[in-house]
Amino acid sequence: MKAVCWQGANKVGVDTVPDPKIINPQDAVIKITSTAICGSDLHLYDGFIPTMEQGDILGHEFMGEVVEVGSEVKRIKVGDRVVNPFPIACGQCFFCKQSLTSLCDNTNPNAFMAEAIMGYSPSGIFGYSHMLGGYAGGQAEYARVPHADVGLCKIPNGLTDEQVLFLSDIFPTGYMAAENCNIQPGDIVAIWGCGPVAQFAIRSAFLLGAERVIAIDRVPERLQMAKDGGAEVLNFEQVDVGEALKEMTGGRGPDAVMDAVGMESHGMGLEGLLDKTKQAVRLETDRPHALRQAIVACRKGGTVSIPGVFGGFADKIPMGAFMNKALTMKTGQTHVHRYFTPLLEHIQKGDIDPSFVITHRLPLEQAPHGYEIFKHKKDRCIKVVLKPGQSA
Fold this sequence. Notes:
Layout: E1 2-6, E2 12-16, E3 28-37, H1 41-45, E4 61-69, E5 81-84, E6 87-88, H2 111-118, E7 124-125, E8 142-145, H3 148-151, E9 153-154, H4 161-164, H5 170-179, E10 188-192, H6 196-207, E11 212-217, H7 220-228, E12 232-235, H8 241-248, E13 256-259, H9 269-280, H10 289-297, E14 303-306, H11 319-324, E15 328-331, H12 336-349, E16 360-363, H13 367-375, E17 384-387
Parallel strand pairs: 10-11, 10-13, 11-12, 13-14, 14-15, 16-17
Antiparallel strand pairs: 1-2, 3-4, 3-8, 3-17, 4-5, 5-9, 6-7
Helix pairs in contact: 5-6, 5-12
C-alpha cells in the first residue's frame, strides 16, 4: 500500500509499504477513505518529537471502511463505516473505566520511554513516535486498529466523511479545551492561536455558554475564520495583546484563557528569538510564548486550558503569576471516546458542520505538498484533508 512516511526533519514521502495485518484477535483493518494533516503532526515534521524513526507512517486523524476483523471483535463488522479516535484505549484499565481514555495504561508497549520523561505514560497514539507506542498512522491506504471494539466509532448513514472526520481529533480536542475552561454564563474566553483546534474551541465555547470569545493570531485567513465563528480577534503583530485584553474586559481580564498553539508558538522580539535559539540547540524543547502570555493575561481566580501539544520542557513559565492569582490549569491529550456521541449529535442536529475548517483537499500522493503549505501557511492553508485512492 501507499503511506506517508517520516524521512527526517522537514521531510516526508509517500512510500510503498507492507499492508497491515491482523496481529491480535481484537484488531481490525480499515480501508482509509479520508485522513488529515494535524497541527501536532508538524511537531513531528519539524523534528521536535523524540523517538521518531525513518519510515514511520504518520497520521492520527483518519476514517474509513472496515475490511477485516479479528476473531474477538464483536461490535464492529466488515463493511462498517467508522471514525478512529487518535488515542488507543483498552477499555478495561483504571483510566479507561473513568473515560480518561488518552491515559490508558495498557496500549503503549513502549511506556518505559515516556515514563523516563513524564513519570507515567499516556496511552498509545497512532503515528506519533515510538515513545507513544510506535503505531503505524493513518495517512495511508489501510491501517490496523487495535482494540477495535473500544475505539472504532460507527457512522450513521447520511453523513459525509468531511462532516465526521474531525471527530477523530480536532473537534473533540477543541470541545474538551472549552469544557476545561469551566465556562459560566457571561464568561469571556481568550484563545491564543486560530488554527484548526482553536477554530473548534471557539465554536465549542459558544456551545457551552460563553458570552464572548477573543481569538489571537496574526494570519489573516485564520483571523477571518475565527470572526466567522463569532469571535472578536486580535492580531498580535499589531497590538499589545495583554493591554488589549485588559481594555476589552474592563480591566479585569478574561475569565478563562486557552493556549491552542503549544510547543512552537511564535514569540516577538528578544523573547521569541531566545526561545527559537534554545529550542534549536535543544536547551529548551518547547517555545511557550503563548502560554506565558495566557497565564499573565488571565483574570484572578480564572482558568488556563491547554490543548496545544507540549513535548518536554519549557523555560520561564510565570509560576509567580499562576500561584498568586489563584489560577487553575487543565490540560491533557483528548479523551476522544468520551466526546464522540455528544458531538456526533451536534453534527446531526445541524449545530455545527465541521467541514468548515477544510481549505485543501489533496490525493494521498500529494501529502508532501500538503505538509509544506500547512507548515508555512501558503495558499491560505488552514486544514488539509488527504484522500487515498483519489487522483489529482
